[in-house]
Design brief:
cell membrane, translocase, transmembrane, single chain, NADH dehydrogenase (quinone) (non-electrogenic) activity, mainly alpha, 0% strand, Helix Hairpins, membrane, 121 residues
Length: 121
Amino acid sequence: MHILYPVVVSVLLFSIGIYGVLARRNTILVLMSVELMLNAVNLNLIAFNVWLEDRLLGGQVLSLFVIVIAAAELGVGLAIVLAVFRNRRTVDLDRLRDLSEPEPEHEGRGDGAAAKEGVGR
């Protein structure tokens, strides 16, 4: 097999993953794009392992490590997304730029008079 075919497919997968990371606003889709980029790296590792006829199977061993790291990254990433969703009620990356807690919405007239009168203290 010629090495050019898997490398071109890998470049296409990695490019789609980069586009997904840079253009998407949903956190879940960004995590999926990172996984796509890791799979492109795995494809390159396996293709060059076969092309170089490595007897120690270094590309396949590294590919297994990448799969393990990707699984751990996905588990931690989804746990963080769930924790953020419980606190903020959104997974939109544009709304998550702030690290502070969201401001509580004041009940009342909406003109700030409730805060001046000491309501809620």
